[in-house]
Task: structure prediction
Amino acid sequence: MQLALDFTAPPPVRVVSGGISPVVPPAVPSAAAPSSALPVRAAPGHAEAGRAARARRGLTGHLGGLAAENSVARCYARAGLQVLRRRYRGPHGEIDLVLRDGPVLVFVEVKRGRSHDGALHRISRRQVDRIRASAAVFADTEAGAPGAEMRFDLATVDAAGAVRLHPGILSHF
Result:
């Protein structure tokens, strides 16, 4: 029985007269040798498969987030609000949607989850602080309305795609 220590390539072979012969692997380290003497490597393609799976999950999450933001933007538009920006990248973080409701600037964070309650619990105080800081910059520079009245909403989207709007909820966070 041959013990393969290197899983990244097939075991080497040697061409000899009359065919090929496997190369004898190095001796297995004794029990007294440190465990770091044995190379630990993943099976062929394992790391690549893991990266590909993460990339697929990332793409799925990204596309799901875009779909959720589009659904929320349509809900606000039906309610008469004007969409000013999507995914505004401010100096302190990203704001999913920036809208105008008459003279009021509305900043919306969109959260997806299996349920609306689950999505509600996915926002942190730190994230709200970053949204508020970026909102102030947007009001000063992009909207040309320093000191404008602002509202901070949260919109949740469940696994079925149902949207719930929570106007002003982040103002009290």
The first helix runs from residue 46 to 78. The longest strand covers residues 82-90.
